[in-house]
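Fold these two proteins, one after the other.
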Amino acid sequence: MKKKYRLIQILFIYFIKIVKFLYAGIKKSIRFINSKKRLAIPFYGFLAFVFYIFLLIQFSGDSAFDKTLNNKTLNDVTQINPIQVNQIIKPKTVNEIVYAIKNTTGPISIGGGKYSMGGQTAFENSLHIDMRLFKKIINIDTTKKQITVQAGIRWRDIQKVIDPLNLSIKIMQTYSNFTVGGAISVNCHGRYIGHGPIISSVLELKIITANGDIIIANRDVNQDVFNAAIGGYGGIGVIAEATLQLVDNVKVERFHEVMPIEDYKAYFDKNIRSNENVVFQNGNLYPPKYDKIMSVSWEKTTKPLTDTDRLIPEDENYWLESHMAGVVSWGNSGKWIREYTIDPLYYIPEIVRWRNKEASYDVKELEPSSREKTTYVLQEYFIPVENIKSFIPKMSAVFQNNKVNVINVSLRHALPDHESYLSWARKEVFAFVIYYKQGTDQEAKNNVKKWTLEMTDAILSENGTWYLPYQPHATVEQFKKGYPNSGKYFELKNKLDPNQRFTNKLLDKYNPYANSLLSKEKKKLKDYYRAEEQTVLTVPEWYLVYNPKEYADYLESGKNPSDFPFYKSIDEYWKLYDRSLKLTSEAYPENAEYKTMLQVIGVSMTMEYGAKILYENTIGRFFSLFSEENSSESEKVIIEAQKSYSDFIYQTAWYEFKFLPWITKVWTASEKSDHSILRKWERTFFFTIEFSFKAFYSQLIEWAAKSTDETPSDKIYLIVSNVDSIRESNNLKIIKKDGDKMIIAVTRWEVFTKEMIKLSKQDVKIYEISGNDEIAISTIMNRSQEIKPQGIKLLYQSQIVTDDKVKRNVYLLPVEKLLPFIKNLQSNNITVEHVYDY
């Protein structure tokens, strides 16, 4: 701890030095400006304007807004696989699960502790069943040493109950945080010698199928369901209850030995494999050379305990362990420190403890202080015992060629499993458990996929396979080769779940029955998926479309431009910004790119309107005293230009608007009536400055946009009911039909809203839009009007700054309710302002 505080002190000192450096730089800049008198006034004027804009932003917005959307984003421990589901339930009874299945029609995903690392517990827009409150112990038979539990219970919670009975779990993972249902769904294993996967210790399951039926599955009844559900990743049904075989709790003593890797197989065969006294064993293979391995075993003993704790305390502090992992991740130097310093010191003491304590490790000891920029991930390879000598050089080459930051490789032994349809141990294997560090950015993810595919080929070349709870990078062809009985599994799944409701990212990729025409087409369409949170985040962006229209309408009504509520407009933008960010803050992963964009356009708008506030309340207001009833032709053209601009940006990017021709048009307008010369020229000069600056700024933005080589898609994709009433047009194209559904492409932005209004008059149902199940919509209605449609959320009200008699309401609703809602709005003479298409 002293070292930790010392580090904080050092960082604080460096922070003070940086502040002093910046302060000195500012002082030097001011001295330079003061020495150049001609620059002083513009420089201080610029600083004053920046401070003025800062104040406008600071005193705008709605920082008190505290409403958030329900969190429906699921992630796993790695924090790199966020998935947006439709609904999350946390059942405590079987009836709640049955009811949820029977009263929904869409996909269903099932999750426990979320320690699988590649989307195995979630699927987009699914009903997600979070099993962690489904955790009762149903029965314990101390004579038969058997226990029946609800599937959401953690191993640790079982240990707390059976330890006083001097019983122990027969097979489980090294760490005790996992749920029983999750462990059975992945057909887990541990460090247990003389055993294979957990299926050998499972006696019976109670399973809830896709039609809500409850069935019992064991080796005598529904054996095919038993064999498919264990290691079936939730594809067969919800594992509600499990009966497991237990064993006696015993005292175990630790032994370790380091040896060259070429000696390990012979050492294992002689000392471990048939030794009935060995309970736990694994080998730590040292990166980056992978030429030495330490065997660590725990053997039954009658010696006195050196560690009297029955279980590892749940409130243990793992500060040291997590920082040691950080040291090992430094690079080759960290690996050297681990091999020659950390491990030799760690294994010095002789330890005798209870089996249950050695089986009660907590994953918190692996958790880093942050997973924001880097994260720790697992992979696991199952290699036939006779092939490890030929596999290790291949594995090492893949790691070294791709500069993989491997923290640890642990070898565990497993006997064959000939029961599970998705068995990973069709013969006796050594499991290579790989713990590595990777970045969280897309480039790092792509690199991991690249070397994982290379590793998969290396595994298959040795007649091995890989564990499926991790990122599903393997190709469909590789999967079929590594899991040759997968066809049998999916055939049974299709029989029990013909609509493929039980699914997740893993099953969706490899399930041949899930690849409908529409599913295949969705994967082909590059811009099919859009981030759902953007339907809310686009509201402030669209305000920069609505407000120019208000301004144009205000001028067209003949009102004084100096009276336009510019500050109210600034305030309203930042209110929408604050509210939208707060609403999405807990429900979705942070969309940093979109947030930055909103900040940039918000500051730009504040600078423009801030300048107009200064001008219109001084020079503009003075010259308004000279205005007459008749406006000049130049002023009429200015109003026409503002209206043209406001109409243009409803469908096209603002920087594509042609500003300069309008300046020419204003200056060349021929006057036909009496008017105020002073007011005409003041408005003309002001308009010229405004549009000239926008022309220059728009050119910069356009150049920047083109330099990215990314043209935003002008299409958005929907899955709708396949009815004869849908007709193709310039703005609506039918992409693919499949049964009673089809994918259509609709032109985005203003056109999208118009097309949705058209569809609302037809017998059409929307199933998803851009892969999403919710969408935002805004309406304009009188202040006195109220609507409270069921299942539709009013996010907030927005002010129409030029008309207090009307209001803008922003709603969030399921996409399936979009068309009925629009139809209802129109029947009540409420204006559908915009459907926010992400």
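Now the second one:
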Amino acid sequence: MSHENLQRNEAAQRSALISTHSYDVSLDVRQAADPDVAGYTSRSVINFSAAEPGQSTFLDFIAAEVHSVFLNGKGLPVADVVEGSRIRLDNLQAENQVTVTGTALYSRSGEGMHRFVDPADGQCYLYTQYEPADARRVFANFEQPDLKAEFTFHVMAPSGWEVASNGVEAARTQLTSDPDTSRWDFATTRRMSTYITTVLAGPYFSAQDHWSATLDDGTSVEVPLALYCRASIAESFDAAVLFRLTKSGLDFFNRLFDYPYPWGKYDQAFVPEYNLGAMENPGLVTFTESYVFTSRATDAQYQGRANTLMHEMAHMWFGDLVTMQWWDDLWLKESFADYMGTLGVDQATDWDTAWVNFANKRKAWAYVQDQLPTTHPIVADIPDLEAAKQNFDGITYAKGASVLKQLVAYVGFDAFIAGSRQYFRDHAYGNTTLADLLKALSAASGRDLAGWAATWLQTSGISTLSLDSGTLDGELGTVAIVQDALDPVTGREVLRPHRLRVGSYNFDADGALVRTGSVEADIAGARTDVPELAGQRRPALLLVNDDDLTYAKVRLDPASEATVLASLDRISNPMARALCWTALWNSARDGESPAARYVDAVTTFGPSETGIGVLLNILDNAQAAVERYTHAAGRDAVRGEFLAAADSQLGLAAPGSDQQLAWARTVAAVSRHDSTLLPRLRGLLEGAVKVDGLAVDAELRWNIWHALAANGQAAVGELDAELARDNTASGRPGHATALAARPDPEVKAAAWKAAVEGTGLSNQLLSATILGFTTAPAELLEPYVEPFFECLRGVWDNRSIEIASRIVRGLFPMAQDLPAGTVPEQHPVVLRTDAWLEANADAPRALRRIIVEQRSHLLRALTAQART
């Protein structure tokens, strides 16, 4: 494990010394299907130059064994130059070639070369995933984003497999000495970073197509397209739909960016046990195969998939063509891709609710992250790779995208795009920092954006905006927007500039609550008057940040809040309705209002919510409000009313509709903690109970089994029989969750041992086991509070960062109730967490960050419980 956590200063020193030119990488995975073969041969030939001959540098390679190292034709003693995950290279020349051969290991954690055996047919599948620094698990390299190079890959694999990489297939040769093995040679790529190289290998189902267009300047572009998924789920693979979306995206982005797609082909692979939603490898994007819907999916899920597809496509320019110099500027790719992904869905597809779903769900992620004590500026301080791994969060993605939306409102869309186009031209195949982007955007907009960047990109925390107004004889007096903004990192007030709208909503003749006026305002400072509203008739609802132009929490004024709580379902505008839902949720999370009030709003107005994305989100929020934010003394009653309402809506919803499926999933999820409807749920499983139009398919069946198991009403034999019925990649985690959910001390002990002490669970099965373990009454989990804190250092030291993070975050004792007479800060688990943090001041920063964040989540929940 030595030296795996590369420091920023080390990376800077290395890039100051060397420049990389090319890699020639050979991988031999012909024995991957043999479970007794733990690794594969990896060979890297790297050409690079050194600014100061005679100096030393190092390569990165996390291998089972390094067999040989040759530097400029001379063999180096492996025992002397290999130090943990690094290979020391001394006495460099002006131009150098290093060749490293070793055995790399297959992974079950989703890091490096992941190996998956399909339980449905026993077939073996491989794919790679590297971000931020796991290419070194597959081949020796200089693992940092600013040491770009050209890459040529060669793969030895079973002849019947599909094999793909970033470049197009240049040749495929069947070995005369071993006809069951073939060698794939791929074309050399353009310059790119190590973390976006990739290899895919296995008996994948594939489909081909192509896209061509003539751009506005007359340039003709033609791009071969391919799609991949496991053979056993090919029947569910809607390749025609995905190709159509891909072509729409390529049409949109090629014209928008005025820079032809730069990577030759465009393949997309949907792979099992994936740690992310997707990864922007040029020429071969990888996605979680949960986007191949083998069970009934809602329109919101299809839209979410389209958003991810557009997000990754935008990365071909933001992130791949132009890449951040170091992970401090991770936002330069992720914030832009998040913004552009939503823009692409909005502009290039038939969906018209992309920005509504962004406001209601994506920004909610940012709001949560930005209120944690570990929040950070969008342009973050990333001293090492562990910190980089933790910063793929709501700030880097959703807050960054939200701030870009505010920037577009500030400088105008045309100027924003013009600056982006120049940025690509100036820095193609290179690396950049914040200053480079600001230079391009400032030139295009004619605005000096240094001040804007200082307040929006280089500070932390979220502004809260509220309306201060008086009403006399039904007319508004002085109206002002009050801004409250504290940077939780520095403790200083940060009053950001906001360009926003204030919408006036009134009831029309049909009783609908419609927008009757809108005022655009530039907000600056702690208080900004809005004179255009003074003297107007008081509307039923005044909505700050109407159309969701800026990034801020909004508090409804008392009169507007009363209107929303009485007539939320009558707001005709989907975005305005979503913003009101968000305001109610933030009020509940912040302990400003009782959590039960939010649940009441969901049960009252949820049935009328036409936006399925919004409905799914508020139903999830309501469950959290019940189980985490409602005091234990009243929880059963609040949960019971919510469950009864959900069951009622399951029966009333249109047969076969997305709304019906949403309510069905909610009934199953809430029933993990309430046994009232379990006979009805079992009836659905067995076919004795029918709900017109409801497909009780594999996903819903496992959700129901989870509920039954958590209440002690599912025998092992029944769960095994269900697995035999659904022995698939999605069935196995459903089975693992249900098994671990059974309320039995021996079951919990076995699940804990498998998750914490064992190493046999893959990344997906580990998370499934943890989910089942934590679905339990408090008395069953209480014995594991102390073991959790005792195991933390060992878990972090001995497991990969991906696996360790899942264990630490997932097993933190979060499900706690506030005892009568106890203040949240004095809760025993809060105190135990504080004691651990004090005693482990030397613990790795990334580990401490997770613990601090989980403490904050727990404290927020306890504070909300104290409110009820």
